[in-house]
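Standup notes, structure subgroup. Blocker cleared on the nicotinamide-adenine-dinucleotide input:
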Amino acid sequence: MSVEHVIAIVGFGGMGSQHGKILSGISRIKVAGIYDILETRQQFAIDKGFYVYKSYEEILQDSTVNTVLIATPNDSHRDIAIAALKAGKHVICEKPVTLNSRQLEEIIETAETYNKVFVVHQNRRWDEDYLVMKKLYDEGILGDVFHLETRVQGSRGIPGDWRHQKEFGGGMMLDWGVHLIDRLLIMIKEKITSLQCKMSYVLGNDVDDGFRLTINFESGKTAFVEVGTCNYITLPKWYMCGTTGTAIIEDWEMNGQVITLKTFNDKDATPIEAGAGLTKTMAPRELDTVNTNPIPRFDTDVREFYHNFIDVTEGKGEILVKNEEVLRVMKVIEAAFLSDELNQVVLFD
Ligand code: NAD
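Run returned:
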C-alpha cells in the first residue's frame, strides 16, 4: 500500500518513542522524523533510525509533513499545537491535552480556523479492561448499574521527572485521572449533577500524588474514580454494581469475575454467626441462585486510533476521540480541583 500520511514527532521521550515504534509498523504512515530538545533523546532517535530535525521550526517548514504528533510535557502542548495548526498541519496530541479547558478551547478555535484535524491520544479507551466493563454496562448484563468504581494504584510515588512539578502540568489527576475520567464519561452518557474530590498530597509533593473523586449522575448513578501512588496493597481496578449482578476486575492481568442473579426466588437466608454478631442480611447467597463467570476477554487494537485519524483527515468517517468529549473531561478536572480547594461538593453542567 502506498504511504499516505507523513508525521513528525515532537518530544521523543517515553511516549514519543512508543508512538515512533507503533507508527513505524503502520504502512499508511511514514514517520518523517522527530524533534527533541535533549541531545540524549536526539541520539536515541538516530540510533533507532529516525531523522532528527534541528528545530521545531524545521518541521513546520517541511511541506512533506502533514501531521505533527506532540509528546512533550503537558505545559507545552498548547503552543506546539497552535503553531502546527497555523502552519497547516494536522495534530495528534498527547493527553492531558492542555493544563485547562481554556487552552483547549484556543486550540479547537485554531483548528477550526485553519480547517485541520486536531485529536487527543486517549489511547486507554482501547484498554481491554475498560472495553469489557463498557460491554457489560452497554448490554445491561448486571441489570441497572447504580455504582461503579475505576482506579489505578501503585506504590512508587510520582515518577521522578517533570510529573513532580506544577509548572509542567505534573500530578496524578492530569496524568492518570484524565484517562479514567475520559473513559467513564464515554461509558456513562449522562448529565453530571455534582462531584466531590479529595486530592492526595501524602508524599509531600507540590502536585497531587493521587485523588478520590465521586461523580453523581442525573439518574442517581454514582462513580468513584481513584488514583493512588502510595498503595502497597491495591484495590480492584474495576468494581461495577447493578441491580442483578456485580463485576470486578482485580488487576492488569484481567483477573476478576462477573456474578449475575439467576432467580430472585432465593429463600430468606438463615442467620449466620459473623464476627461478634448474627446476620442474615449479609449471609452469603445459595450458590445455585447465581451465575459465576470469569471476565470475558476482548480483542482490542490501539492502532485503530491512528487509522481513524488518517481516515478523518481524508474526509472519511467520524473522529473517535471528539474534542468536545475531551473538553468536558478538562472541565470535570477543573471542578475536581475546585471541590478539593473548597472542601465541598461542586455542582456541574
Ligand atoms: P518524557 O519526559 O519521557 O518525554 C518528553 C520528551 O519531550 C523529553 O525527551 C523532552 O526532552 C522532550 N521535550 C520537552 N520539551 C520539548 C519541546 N519544547 N520540544 C521538543 N521536545 C521537548 O515524558 P513522557 O512520559 O513521554 O510524556 C510525554 C507526554 O506523553 C505527556 O503529555 C504525557 O502525559 C504523555 N503520555 C501519555 C501516555 C499515554 O498512554 N497516552 C503515556 C505516557 C505519557
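Discussed briefly. The chain has nine helices and 16 strands.
Next: hand off to the docking folks.
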